[in-house]
Specification:
This protein is mainly α. The chain has four helices and no strands. The protein has one domain: Fumarate reductase/succinate dehydrogenase, transmembrane subunit (3 helical TM bundles of succinate and fumarate reductases, Up-down Bundle), CATH 1.20.1300.
Length: 120
C-alpha cells in the first residue's frame, strides 16, 4: 500500500513546533530568572533591570534577534499544539491550519515590525 503523505509542509511545522518548545522550555525560564529573580536574590546587580540598561540592551541587533526568537518560536509551538488538540478532539474545521499558522505568521510580522522599526 502506498502511504505517501499528501501534506509536504508537515515536517516544516513540526520543526517549528520543536524549536518553539525548546525556546519555551529553556530560554524563557532562563530569561525570567536572570531578569526577574536574580536581582532580588542578590545574584545580579539591581541595575540589570534598570531602564537605561534595558534600553541599551534592546538597541543591539543581536538582542533584538534574541527577543524576536524568544517571542516568535513559542507562537508556532502554540499554533501547532492548538491545531492538533482541536483535531484530536474530533473537530474538523476547514482551514484550521491556515487559521493557526496564519495567526503565528501575523504575530511574527508584528513582532518583527516592533523590534526592527519601532524600537531604537
Amino acid at each position: 500500500m502506498n502511504h505517501y503523505k499528501r501534506d509536504k509542509t508537515e515536517p516544516f511545522w513540526w520543526g517549528l513546533f520543536a524549536a518553539g518548545g525548546m525556546v519555551a522550555a529553556m530560554l524563557i525560564p532562563m530569561h525570567l530568572f536572570i531578569n526577574g529573580l536574580a536581582p532580588h536574590l542578590g545574584l545580579a546587580g539591581a541595575e540589570v533591570n534598570g531602564y537605561e540598561a534595558m534600553r541599551e540592551l534592546i538597541s543591539h541587533p543581536l538582542a533584538k534577534l534574541y527577543f524576536l526568537i524568544m517571542i516568535v518560536m513559542p507562537l508556532y509551538h502554540a499554533a501547532h499544539r492548538i491545531r492538533f488538540t482541536i483535531y484530536e478532539l474530533g473537530v474538523r474545521v476547514p482551514g484550521l491550519s491556515i487559521l493557526c499558522y496564519g495567526g503565528a505568521l501575523v504575530g511574527t510580522g508584528l513582532a518583527a515590525y516592533i523590534f526592527f522599526h519601532l524600537l531604537p
